Protein 1
Amino acid sequence: MTRSELIDLLAQRFPQLVLKDAELSVKTILDAMTENLATGERIEIRGFGSFSLNYRPPRLGRNPKTGTKVQVPAKYVPHFKAGKELRDRVDAIGQ
Amino acid sequence: MTLTKADLADLLFEQVGLNKREAKDMVEAFFEEVRNALEQGDSVKLSGFGNFELRTKSERPGRNPKTGEEIPISARRVVTFHASQKLKTRVEEHYAEQPMQVAQA
């Protein structure tokens, strides 16, 4: 499922709204989630899961082309942990 | 502050102009459609944010951490999330500007 398919499905669920509303809703939700993670805030969606940041300490890496060592600075990377309902539903099929 | 469904509904009310009821339902429907797709074995690609993918794991040996007893971890299907380059870059840029306090999951 792509972003535009999600927009179409949501538009079908809300016949009183125009497609533009579904489109703007998806954009608003994803932008807010991006913004929160980018400023180090968690996201917690009951029944779906939580997003947080994981710390990656600085390390000595290598340029794969030249083989020279480069210092890779510490950074944070986004992390998702599925919630119980999502975990159970995804695992139920095919069992 | 942790972002929740209630916060997202407030944003849809303020920024999209949905009424309170629609805003709450829209947030719920958004995550329900993603769950539905994943439940049906379909991956979800939200451009600019990231991809949710499914991985099938075969049975592997595990251990009860309390008792040390060996018990098999059954085969299962799990969801993985891969942040888009845009989201990764946004997170890294902010950290480069100012080290932050991060709440863990």
Note: The longest strand of chain B covers residues 50-57.
Protein 2
Amino acid sequence: MSSPGNGISRRELMAIGGAAAGIAAMTPLAHARMLPAEMDRDVFAAACRDLRAIVGDDWVFADEASTISYRKSEIPDLRGEHIPSGAVAPASVEQVQAILAVANRYKLPLWPISTGHNMGYGMATPASSGQMILDLKRMNRILDFDAELGTILVEPGVTYQQIQDYIDEHDLPYWIDVPTVGPIVSMVGNTLERGVGYTPYGDHFFMQCGMEVVLADGSILRTGMGSIANGNTWQAFKWGYGPYLDGIFTQSNFGVVVKLGMWMMPKPPAYKPFMVRHHEVEDIAAITNTVRPFRMNGLIPNAVMMMGALYQLAMFNRRADLWNQPTPIPLEVLKGHARRNDIGVWNTFFALYGTDETIAATEPIIRGAFEAIGGEVMTDAEMSGNPYFEHNKTLMRGGLTLEEKGLVRWWGRSGGAVAFAPVAPAKGGETAGQTALATEVMNKWGFDYAPAYVVGGRELHHIIFLMFDKGSDESSAKAEQCMTEMITRFGERGWAAYRSAVSTMDLVADQYGATNREVNARIKQALDPNHILAPGKQGIA
Amino acid sequence: MRPQWKHGTVALLGLIAATGAALVAAPGDTAQAQATYEIAPRAPEYLYARTCGYCHGHNVAPLIRGRNLPPAVIQAVVRSGMGAMPAFKPTEITNTELQALAQWLSTAPADPQEHGQ
């Protein structure tokens, strides 16, 4: 294949050119957009006209070329089940209200996004085809940053990068707490999905305080203390009075959250990151049991990551660099690569925050506990400059990085990754059992097991990135089947996901039981009787 | 170049003073709301550093500086997200910004500090 001299093949150039012109779609499934089911083309066109009258011609996207960014996702979608009809991008609360009125009038389903970079879970794509993306990125203001209380009030389009820039610009003594892909994603979006980070403020929903929600009928709800006349406590006290409502607007389709309050972590005088190496798969049980008491008593203040070597290696390596067979990477091969990169099979990351004195007092206690189970406790002194150490060192101080994007390229340029994130009690038997089951199922389908455990407190999240080749229909089909089997078999053991890709929302919702689904359905019917907001989100029609 | 907010600037009332790690702030200190939604176009270098450069030149994605990539290709890839790359929407990088970014990137020399694959 000849090349124009810049490393891009002619085939790639043709594909790119086709994408630009909106003609890349050679099959119906490759189309960037699909109309809502049972909606006539002229009705959709009329809805778009009304939407343009609200936001202007530039901010309604309803053709192949302009919708292509919203179609992009790295999860399997062999049957074209997650294709939007278009997108509309309001710039204000008033415009959101007006858009909802149009959606009610035409029964046009809307799928709200903040930035639409929900990595591993479907990016901006909707739970079912035909929904119009309600892109809130233009609502990008930091509305308040109380430097005394360390609270922030932001709109959905505000990224972690924007907040960090703001902090730097004003020399504010606070840290942000980022999710994996911080620079390009929204604090509102991640918090509403109940995502987690890496500092002591890593449980984002726990650190959330107050929100403003536009309901489907256009009414505006401020939760907590937000509706008190002349009130000033909205970002200081979470619970308000009566039923606590914030929770029903997370991982939900009951309203459109347009403002969110968060607590910010005071920048500590001293910060010391640690990495503990273990070299056997079975060590995960002892590591879990060692971490748990320190999370319960707070001696380790941040969420502890137990990173599998393969997850880490996949950030900076392509699969073909490490293993050239189609079969899963053998453990001994993985161990060799880990050793050559100065990491273990498991690498446990945590940090101490405070003053030099408090860290010096705490470190020996924690160090001793890990050394007692055969861990090699490493710090900057031994690991500075190692990219795998530096990665988590960056995250645990709220630093911005996109290095974990590398996982999506594991099988090559086409990308492909879908996340499965079951939760469990933070006990050694649980991690040992989950690791064994995930390895068995993933290897059966020909995939490599890339794990990361996060111990929040008494629970742990098990983040499994199922990396596949989206350029191959066969690989995509296997990924889909593998994910279904994992969710099902984990479910049989009582382990369910805390979050799910748009492709498996119903499957996971079923595991939470019929009554849960029924209650959610009743709330949905009461708040959004036309079901215009994100039907299918978390299995809620 | 930092982004310039079109109307009014972001300002802190009674800007706090931080000594060491200790926060010294007078009661009532608070940041004013950012004033408007639309921001003036951000410079290509600024956008590259805050978006592209986290992967390209950082061992995650291929080097793209110093390769004379055609501007039309750059624009198409940013919007469609080739392969593992995310797609960036007009609400994230406007058409005006993308045009300037693509033009700049197509002639930007290789940066020896970057490393990639």
Note: Strands of chain B lie at 12-13, 17-19, 22-24, 30-31.
Protein 3
Amino acid sequence: MPRRATEDSLATRLIVSIASIGFIVLFLLMPLITVFSQALAQGFDAALTALEEPDAWYAIKLTLFTAAIAVPLNAVFGIAASWAIAKFDFWGKGFLVTLIDLPFSVSPVISGLVYVLIFGMAGWFGPWLRDHDIKIIFALPGIVLATMFVTFPFVARELIPLMEDQGREEEEAAVSLGASGFSTFWRVTLPNIKWGLLYGVLLCNARAMGEFGAVSVVSGHIRGQTDTMPLQVEVLYNDYQFVGAFAVASVLALLALVTLTLKSFLEWRYADEIAATHRH
Amino acid sequence: MSLIVDKVTKRFDRFAALNDVSFTAPKGAFVALLGPSGSGKTTLLRILGGLEFADTGRVSYENEDWLAKPARDRRAGFVFQHYALFRHMTVEKNIAFGLEVRPRKIRPGRAEIARRVKELLSLVQLDDLGRRYPSQLSGGQRQRVALARALAIEPRMLLLDEPFGALDAKVRKDLRHWLRSLHERLGLMTIFVTHDQEEALELADLVAVMNQGRIEQIAPPQELRDKPATPFVADFLGQGGEREAAVIPLRPRGR
């Protein structure tokens, strides 16, 4: 084999390879393996029994339910926001872009606290909500709201650069060919962004299921009522129920792995099409 | 006169892109808008296509108030400088687009659309490439797909923005002749933007020389050469083969 000009010596290559593989194993693979091995420390049946525990089972359902509401809504809002930002010029656009990033820059705990201050008993709307018998804080609506706030930027962040890069010409072409606004969006804009959208939705979903800080503040930790999976893991761990804690953690990790596998599969299956929407 | 542009003005912020532009063109004319970059020629074309809105002024085409019609109702076949082909659709789907988005009442049937697409593919000499994606085509092929797509809607006028700008010299010459003969066959009012005076003089029946948002002179090529109305026209046409340095962006942008 001819040597390439950019090729380094064997020693350098070995050191760099070992360093990176070692890093990946130590910081990414080991924790994942630990989660599963701890869950199965007392056998598969023990782990399964821990999951069948009503509170644990409820936490799993609550997490999936929360994600099922928050993710589709954030996908819609994310598309709307990036469509407006990438395809139109208006006053205050820069401010809007900054605002979209807010959930990323603010600590999740503060995000949760903000909702407590607005909707909690002592908050602005607290008395009104109490009088009308609407529960937001320490209840499902609060958990959904907090999750949505924290995961809002994922879809928009993914789509804005993609849409800006694609420009407005295809939409203009569609309109000049007689397409209505809806037709243009449905037939031209959406197909062009669908892979970016999918990626954003998967990331958003992973984070929505895993969110701890913000949800922890608004949920009030009511077992079997407002404890999502991450919160349940903490509760069980603090109770020294290690098998239970790691069993729930394993389910959470599995959901994340399924998400990643799905993404890789789709990227592999539609590689040509993905390349086509990114090239000119 | 078939096309009457009357005192059209357009400003972007404080910069006047078009300043009181007026001209007329007869039915089926082949018009070139010629000028250096920033002279307002693309803005004028986009206003005719309904992609940009004039601040003041009127345009009448075939006795209709042209500016009152939204872009989608004008049936103005617009060919973009960078083609703006739908990248996720095959060539066939691109060409069929204008027919498929028609309201149900006036939409041709599937078989009819397929027949028209086939016809257009052969008109632009791309018979075997219907199943390809735009990214799998050369520049000249993309240009012809863009043209076929615009022709599919049976346009009332054809608007071309720097149609040969991004092509190499050989392909440019071929396409030029082909476009001229296509125009003669279809008899369609065609307006194209160019900064290449040779291209404008060779192709068009009428050349509008533009500078700083105004039309300096509009006349047939011979008259422009013989009797330039302003020093700018004389100077711009007198440049011989010299052209404005072509700065072709790698990716198409909004305008």
Note: The CA atoms of residues 92 and 130 of chain B lie 5 Å apart.
